[in-house]
Model the fold of this input.
Amino acid sequence: MKWLKMLRLLLSLYRKIDMSRLADLPDLKDSADTKAWLTALLEGGEALADLTKTDFDDQLVATLQKVVADDEAWKVIHGLILAIIGADEQDDEDDGSDDEDYIVFSPSQDADIKATADRLGISPLLIITLIQAAVAILKFLRERRAG
Done:
């Protein structure tokens, strides 16, 4: 009977998550496309969080959705995503290594992150973590698709 319950949960998730949108990976340089994809990913996170008995994950996803939905915050987030992918592209051009290097944001980017976090009443680390997670998920999906 447990397998039947698990099957129902998976079917419920499948209905709640827009898999076709998630499968259509965004052009990270296109702000609207990237925002729509990340919004769909967070909707999937919301569906997963609904399945747990804790409230913490629900609160986390709701906060991340609030950050992505905020137009001013999105400008900062998208700029940082572009900085990360630009650094990755530069690293690949430099030596062809697959090393994960540090991403160092400029002082103005640091100030933007802090101001956005303060305005939204969240930790700047949450914004940085959101960006890093989104880029890591996209890289993973692109690598799996390519290889």
